[in-house]
Specification:
Layout (H helix, E strand, L loop, with lengths): L1 E11 L29 E12 L6 E8 L7 H19 L10 E4 L6 H12 L4 H4 L13 E3 H5 L9 H7 L14 H6 L3 H25 L5 H16 L22 H12 L3
Parallel strand pairs: 1-4, 4-5
Antiparallel strand pairs: 1-2, 2-3
Length: 276
């Protein structure tokens, strides 16, 4: 199984519409209000992604964090460069584009927010988005191929979708930290907290990646031994990465206990918590 988990952070109001005030985006605790957001009027300020291949010896294929420094006067070119960089990452992972994706997209509520926002901003900047428009099933809501929307899948494609943080906590992850949610993105941008913004976005990606792995185990498509191995490597990569906020994952209890694999699990937990 190969997939690319993607999360974006935005602020409302784009320079081209004349509404450049930093307007907050919806909070994760009031997720249902995302339907009321004008996705065409969002400005992308950060993108994080993590590519996973569960059959590879080292399953963490790619970790990338990108953001726009909004203190720069040329905000348009900054956002454009951000989108170009992300598109390049997608194309490098998927040499069979535009007809086929090697790495399916994974998002949380991406059908309603992330993917439409990316499309509108690519459209605005005059950038090719064949990776979003051409491969089969990427834009088909009810498919688990091409684009796997965790929120839609777990809610059985209903309207009552819980926040990502709540799902994370169900499987032993911390969820959102220190009360931070999407409503604080504008504040982080306004105060030039670029590291905090990148870390916030990247932490969501790691947790969404682990949720997807748990779903595949629950579906019976990923064995418990391999689930524990891949989850441990994802945690280890995140904790040893550049973002200090990832240290909160060290106490996560995402492993599935199986009596005959207790020794393996203990070694995985020890490896995750061992300083680099």
């Amino acid at each position: 199984m190969r997939f690319l988990t993607v999360d974006i952070e935005c602020i409302s109001g784009s320079p081209t519409t004349g509404t450049t005030d930093l307007i907050i985006t919806p909070t994760s605790s009031t997720f249902v209000t995302k339907d009321d957001v004008l996705v065409h009027d969002q400005h992308v300020v950060a993108i994080s992604c993590m590519a996973i291949d569960t059959e590879a010896k080292n399953p963490v294929i790619l970790v990338a964090d990108m953001n726009v420094h909004w203190d720069d006067a040329d905000r348009e070119s900054r956002e454009r460069a951000l989108l170009v960089s992300f598109s390049d990452q997608v194309r490098n992972l998927n040499p069979q584009l535009p007809r086929f994706l090697d790495y399916d997209f994974v998002t949380y509520a991406g059908n309603r927010y992330d993917m439409p926002v990316l499309l509108y901003r690519m459209f605005h900047h005059g950038l090719e988005a064949e990776w979003l428009l051409e491969p089969k099933d990427v834009r088909y809501k009810y498919s688990t191929k091409g684009h796997f929307d965790i929120a839609e899948y777990l809610s059985n494609y209903g309207n009552r979708i819980p926040p990502m943080s709540a799902i994370s906590q169900l499987m032993g992850l911390p969820g959102k930290l220190d009360g931070l949610d999407g409503s604080h993105v504008a504040e982080m941008v306004a105060s030039h907290q670029w590291e905090a913004l990148s870390g916030y976005c990247a932490l969501d990606v790691v947790q969404e990646t682990l949720i997807r792995l748990r779903i595949e185990y629950t579906r019976g498509l990923l064995g418990v031994h391999r689930y524990n191995e891949v989850a441990g490597m994802v945690l280890r990569t995140a904790i040893r990465g550049p973002h200090k906020v990832m240290r909160c994952l060290a106490q996560s209890n995402v492993f599935i206990e199986v009596p005959e694999t207790n020794d393996v699990q203990s070694r995985l937990i020890a490896a995750v918590n061992t300083p680099s």
